[in-house]
Amino acid sequence: MQILKEKVQKLLLRIGSIKYRRDRHFYWAVLAFMAVLLIIFFGLYMKMRADVQVRDNVLESYYDDSSSAQPKELVKVYVCGEVVRPGVYALDPESRVSDALALAGGPGPEAVLESLNLARRVVDEEKILVPGKKHIEQTDQSGLVNINTASQQVLETLPGVGPATAQNIIQHRDSEGPFTSIQDIQKVWGIGEKKFSEIKDLISV
After folding, report:
1. What is the extent of the structural domain holding 91?
2. I want to staple 166 with a disulfide (CB 3.0 to 4.6 A). Which of 108, 150, 155, 178 is the partner?
């Protein structure tokens, strides 16, 4: 009886040992599985965080660019003379004389475009007078405007020269005598170095 009791005790101890080892392996497997899940979730979290950061940077850049982009202020010019539709037109600051001419319906049948610099950029408040054949009669053989003989209307064909400046040119040559050089036109009230640089290649004496 005593022997049987001892055998039973040994059997129970062996069964307990097996169960303990099984439970220990099970616990380790669970811990390993949880560690793998933790690593996966951490990786997904970091990727999501990086994506959100990239999105925020893109949106911030977009709104910064949108807020800093200011619309260009248009310039207004008066197109007259030998054109289909004389009038005041608004253009982009980078526009050329040819663009202003197109808005005015193009040149008229008597227009002489050779005296105009169609590639020149327009200036705000300027008057672009497209000359006709009668106007050209008061220019020299090279097509330059003779500032000693040109009428007011022809003088106004020069860039930046409006009615008041054209009258000043005529009054100056009437009172002081003919211009002896194109540089003398800078003595006229309203014509400085900047305006002279714009017209010096278009005038003669």
Report:
1. 71-126
2. 155
Domain boundary among 126, 147, 164: 126
- Condensed to tens digits (0 to 9), the pLDDT of residues 55-71 reads 555 555 545 554 445 66
| Tokens, residue 175 | 């009172």
Asked if 150 and 188 count as a contact pair (C-beta separation under 8 A), the reply is no
- Distance, CA of 180 to CA of 173 (rounded, Å): 10
- Same domain membership, residue 63 and residue 75: no
Token reading at 153: 């209307």
- The verdict on 52 and 39 lying in the same domain is yes
Using alpha carbons only, what angle is made at residue 15 by residues 9 and 17, rounded to the nearest 5 degrees? 105
| Kind of pairing between the strands at 75-81 and 87-91 | antiparallel
Strand ranges of the sheet holding 87-91, from the earlier edge strand across to the other edge: 87-91, 75-81, 127-130
92 and 151 fall within a common domain: no
DSSP code at position 9: H
Q: What is the pLDDT of residues 135-148, one digit of tens each?
A: 665 555 566 888 88
Total domain count, the chain: 3
Q: Is the pLDDT of residue 160 over 50?
A: yes
CATH number of residue 198's parent domain: 1.10.150.320
Give the pLDDT of residue 86: 92
Residues 147 and 163 in one domain: yes
- Return the pLDDT at 111: 86
pTM of this prediction?
A: 0.42
